[in-house]
Amino acid sequence: xxxxxxxxxxxxxxxxxxxxxxxxxxxxxxxxxxxxxxxxxxxxxxxxxxxxxxxxxxxxxxxxxxxxxxxxxxxxxxxxxxxxxxxxxxxxxxxxxxxxxxxxxxxxxxxxxxxxxxxxxxxxxxxxxxxxxxxxxxxxxxxxxxxxxxxxxxxxxxxxxxxxxxxxxxxxxxxxxxxxxxxxxxxxxxxxxxxxxxxxxxxxxxxxxxxxxxxxxxxxxxxxxxxxxxxxxxxxxxxxxxxxxxxxxxxxxxxx
Length: 256
Hints:
single chain; 9 helices; 9 strands
């Protein structure tokens, strides 16, 4: 597809969940998380593109609950920063130990969880990560929990004294919302990462068309995103290899 970054299939993987649903030991659960990295490494080798980065996917607490709360941040007030650090630590440790090039803290719905991840990252001084939020569909300038996105980003960057977070942004949102997000974060001097979904909405019964869905291809939005500071651009749910190939072509033309 022309992708320069691939993510591991560890977005919903967590030691607790793997133990509960598969009946495995802690060590076996950790081995399964490590295998997600090995699969990505194998794909990179198969495609003979050694420069491709492997990003260890770290989804939010809500994603592992399978209740759509990664899109609402409903647990944001019930979990402390310390509890979230403890919950995320085993997976992050596994991904780093397995040799992922970077970490992808993604679809994070609330500032508190983002802060917890930045704090956890400090335990691994050599690691680098991007931090990507899920946002409110009705107010794209806010996190999914409803907090001003720019304030949440500044709070996290303020906690990142060593500069381990190399990009911030959003994912799994309608592509039509990305420009609003980038304008809201325009005064923040850090590279932006954006990888929206197809514009559809995930519900308990599956994916359904979004209210603002159009037939405009993902790649058509990319020049404006780059102009507004996006340096890492891709696609999330319901986007495929063809979409990424088209995005890659546009990016190469834009930066040529």
